[in-house]
Amino acid sequence: MATGKIYPIGLATVLKGLMDLDGSTLRLSLHTFAASIQQNTHTYLSSVGGEVAQSGNYTTAGFTITNASVTTSGAVIKFDADDAVWTSATISAYYAVLYNKSGADSAAWNLLAYVDLGGTQSSSSGTFTIAWSTGGIFTIDVT
Q1: Phi-psi region of 61 (alpha: psi -120 to 50; beta: other; left: phi over 0)
Q2: Secondary structure (3-state) at 83
Q3: Is the distance from CB of 83 to CB of 93 less than 8 angstroms?
Q4: Helix (H), strand (E) at residue 10
Q5: Where does residue 23 fall: left (phi above 0), alpha (psi -120 to 50 degrees), or beta otherwise?
Q6: Distances in Å between the alpha carbon of 55 and those of 2, 91, 92, 99?
Q7: Per-residue model confidence as pLDDT tens digits over 83-132
């Protein structure tokens, strides 16, 4: 089960009203160990690099997440969506990166969160899945 770590600059973009978590085109891309994950300084997808090659139904720039939702329970805000599934794919990924695909290219696509997959995860002409934890993609506890 995967849980995302928030990019602070991405959360600030949401709080400023510049990104709508359940109304924007949010995408999930897959990256190798060679990716540069700088949680506190990176703003745009173009900074990350190391995206896996297109394979099966995995295309460059990843997967548009579906059924995104923001819910609250007491002091906890939960952001969740359907799991990401790529079929007939040969993939070796170390990270999954969630971003807002708005604008012409990756230099304008705001980072929101990433998942360290705990090592390289692979599929060979099969299904590659990012299954979100029961806690969602990420939660924010405001207590």
Answers
A1: left
A2: coil
A3: no
A4: helix 8-15
A5: alpha
A6: 22, 7, 11, 20
A7: 999 999 999 999 999 999 887 778 888 999 999 999 999 999 999 999 99
Longest C-alpha distance within the chain, in Å?
45
Q: Closest by alpha carbon to 40, among 67, 81, 10?
A: 10
Strand order in the sheet with 138-141: 69-73, 76-80, 138-141
What one-letter code names the amino acid at 39?
Q
Between the alpha carbon of residue 5 and those of residues 11, 36, 140, the distances in Å are 11, 14, 10
Parallel, antiparallel or unpaired: strands 63-64 and 26-31: antiparallel
Rounded to two decimals, what is the model's pTM?
0.92
Tokens linked to 98: 């969630």
